[in-house]
Amino acid sequence: MKFTAQQIAGILEGDIVGNPDIEVSKLSKIEEGMEGSLTFLANPKYTPFIYSTKASITIVNKSFEPEHAIKTTLIKVEDAYKSFSKLLEYYNMVKLNKIGVEQPSFISDSAKYGDSVYIGAFTYIGENVTLGENVKIFPNVYVGDNVTIDNDTVIFAGAKIYSECIIGKNCVINSGAIIGADGFGFAPNDKGEFSKVPQTGNVILEDFVDIGAGTTIDRATLGSTLIRRGVKLDNQIQIAHNVEIGKNTVIAAQTGIAGSTKIGENCMIGGQVGIAGHLIIGNGVRVQAQSGIGRNVKDNETLQGSPSFNYGDWNKSYVYFKNLPKIVKNINELEKKVNGDN
């Protein structure tokens, strides 16, 4: 797929300095640019590369004025970084713009979907499934009975959506994600064995939710595991049954959240964080990577450590912790002097 500088400038509402007819078909870093590629310059420390790059087109800020001769065609915009991001979104939209039903695939007679959907080969669509307009389902996806997927949602290859789940508009579910598997519910019986507690609820993803590759979200025991609007989950995250995650919260990879915990809005949770069950995490909370949360957290707290506590206090404590052998040695020497030992 090729685009001219004129076409790109039209999408970005930018000004061209150079050849408006030059074409590009791929993207590149400015330091690795080659003929036929498009790049951008936003960070001033990369400015020297604009004089040596072989990229055919470079997006720059309107304030940029070259100090030496350049070969690349410039497209000048208000914000080069935002414009390049906008172009990536446009590129993805064009790349993913598939329509139709590929074969072989299985679609239940009771499923409902419009002409604008894409259903990739080897996909299974169960009974009473409803797919909204412009839904894209890539190959090898499983969609269980009574699932609803709203408009403009994309589900990448190999994802699994179990029965009864509800997926909102403009969601992205990446490969290997599993939405709606049974929660980890078992109860001990008279024999000392563990019997499974039926998990009869579902998972609800509201609009504009992104789910990373390999992430798992368990269905509720009763009711719903609820992921609110705008939540972004990284790869390989475990969300247990009956968890609720508030609007616009972002969570990094390998985090695990135990059952029935409620997380507020606009939180930022780092990688490999562990959160115990039945907790309430407030709004605007920040949790540093590899922390362990075992208590309720108030709004706007910033935490680190396992068990976690205030981030500033953690940093102060770490200064003492890393010097602990020296501190213990000094204390022992003082005790000897006080006790009169040689």
From TrEMBL:
Reactions it catalyzes = a UDP-3-O-[(3R)-3-hydroxyacyl]-alpha-D-glucosamine + a (3R)-hydroxyacyl-[ACP] = a UDP-2-N,3-O-bis[(3R)-3-hydroxyacyl]-alpha-D-glucosamine + holo-[ACP] + H(+)
Q: What is this protein called?
A: UDP-3-O-acylglucosamine N-acyltransferase
Q: What is the lineage of its organism?
A: Bacteria, Pseudomonadati, Bacteroidota, Flavobacteriia, Flavobacteriales
Keyword Lipid metabolism carried by entry: yes
Q: How does it assemble?
A: Homotrimer.
List the active-site residues: 241
The domain of life for this entry's organism is Bacteria
* Family, per entry: Belongs to the transferase hexapeptide repeat family. LpxD subfamily.
